[in-house]
Amino acid sequence: SRPDALLHDPNEAAARVVRMLREGVVRAVDGSDVLVEAETICVHGDTPDAVAFARSLRERLEREGITVSAPKIETKSAWSRRALAPTERRIIADRPEGGPAPFSAGPASFRNGPARNRRAPLGRAGFGHLTHLPSFYENSIVFFTTCAYGRRKILAASQCHGILRRLWERSAVRDGWWVGHYILMPDHVHFFARAGNEARSIASWVQMWKSVASRQIAAAFGIDPPIWQPEYFDRYLRSTESYSEKWHYVERNPLRGGLVKRVEEWPYRGTIHDLRF
Fold first, then answer.
1. Parallel, antiparallel or unpaired: strands 228-236 and 141-148
2. Closest Cα partner for 252 from 237, 269, 232, 238?
3. 229, 217 in Cβ contact below 8 A?
4. Are 235 and 87 in contact (CB under 8 A)?
5. Which residues of 200-216 are buried (b: 16+ CB within 10 A; e: fewer)?
6. Average pLDDT over all residues of the chain
7. Cβ-contact 114, 197 below 8 angstroms
8. Strand order in the sheet with 141-148
9. pLDDT tens digits along 96-125
10. What confidence score (pLDDT) does residue 54 get?
11. 253-264 residue pLDDT tens
């Protein structure tokens, strides 16, 4: 019933779909970003020029390196096998700051089973190179997005950058999670991480560092928590996806947002560990 309920410009639609797939967010009608985990795109066939619209949309997505395919219908047995695969699981809500433990509908362990944490040797300038363990590299790289509570624009600051980087630097030894590239935007954070051979569950780890960061950020700015929205987005990068290409897209967010003129000018970004395959 709203005049802006549908997108009629294929270029605008393609831009939103690309951002939805690569960042896990979609722009709402009120201008805010909403976390989503989409698997299909709906093109209304009863709208004028629907076929041309779909063709134009597909061409743009393919130019962006995104493969378009028909939805796959799974049998019950196939669904059961996929449901039991921990690396395919998605959790989008964690424990509210100071609240009860989250509900988890899936297994908390990873495919390779538990082992022991191992400290990675540090290279130049504190840049960590991961321990060369075959089982470690079988674990997927996970792309995370989490937003500030109420979308407050407080995260793109040196205090927040220092707090989060210190927490993530310690995560490898303390929690079994290795953080690679990351970027802080004014009201949300993107980063990539890979679980070690013995790691906290994904929900437990995210809740832990968000809780600690919340207290430290609140103290640094003299504001009341909560600092983070309880929801977050996580997406496992499949073997067909390129970690470097996805990071190249994400690190250009400040440029697209008009915050800098060159990517390297944005100070709230970095790399902690090399997550190379």
1. antiparallel
2. 269
3. no
4. no
5. bbbbbbbbbbbbebbeb
6. 76
7. yes
8. 228-236, 141-148, 188-195, 177-184, 269-271
9. 444 333 333 333 322 233 333 333 333 333
10. 84
11. 999 999 999 999
